[in-house]
Each structure stands twice: as C-alpha cells, then as structure tokens.
Amino acid sequence: MYQFVLDGAVFAQTAPAAQGAPQAPAVPVQGTPAAAPGVQPKPQGGDLTSLLIMLGIPVLFFVILFVPEMRRRKKMKQQLASLKQGDKVITAGGVVGTIDFVGERTVYIKSQDTKMEVAKEYVGFVFSNEPEQKK
Fold first, then answer.
1. DSSP letter for each residue of 88-134
2. What is the pLDDT of residues 47-103, one digit of tens each?
3. Architecture of domain 83-128 in this structure
C-alpha cells in the first residue's frame, strides 16, 4: 500500500498488481479531509491576529510597567513643588523631621534638636497635614 498527498488530502493505493491486472483506484484514507474540487487549502501563517498579538504585548508591558511609575513621579513632583513650612517629611536617608524653611532647591529640616539642609530631590515622602478621609 502506498500513500501520497494531493491538495492537502492523503490518499492510499494498494501495491501494483501483476502485469495486465486492473489497478484499484486511489481512495481517501479514513480520518483525513479530502479536498473538494476547486477548494484551495488555507495558507499557514501571516494571520492578522498574530500581528496584533505581537504588537499588543509591548503595549501591555508599557502599560503595566511604566505608567504607574510615571504617575508616581508626577505625584512626587507636585508634592515637592507644594512643600511648605511645617510639613512633616522623611528624607531618602531615613531622617524624619519637620520643614523649617523652603528654599529654591533645598529645604531646612528640623529633627528634634538638629537642623539640616537637604536637597529637595532627597525628600522621599511628605506626610499630609490634612487628616485622611476614610473611604
């Protein structure tokens, strides 16, 4: 028995008989789709969905990774611009204190009996003087 493929359909044919004997016709093998006359098999690859997936994955990563960081930076920039005397802050070094004076690029922080000058970029967290509203 021989098998061969024609237009995506698998056909089987028995071994050739002796000389002069009639040969059995080729028939489709059970379980394989026979190609209808005039029907082209679907080409593989090149789908629009695979292109959309390949473009969508980087967009998804951008949204998941970078958008929250941009929001956090924007919020911190607004907080640093609105620093005022009396705000309670924590510096990047872990010093907790109260702002005594706000300059153009620096702030003076008073912590217990110590007063220090810190660059605004190193203010890590600003406590709100307003009471928090419970949700």
1. EEEETT--EEEEEEE-SSEEEEEETTEEEEEEGGGEEEEE-SSPPPP
2. 788 888 889 999 999 999 999 999 999 998 998 888 899 999 999 999 999 999 999
3. Roll (2.30)
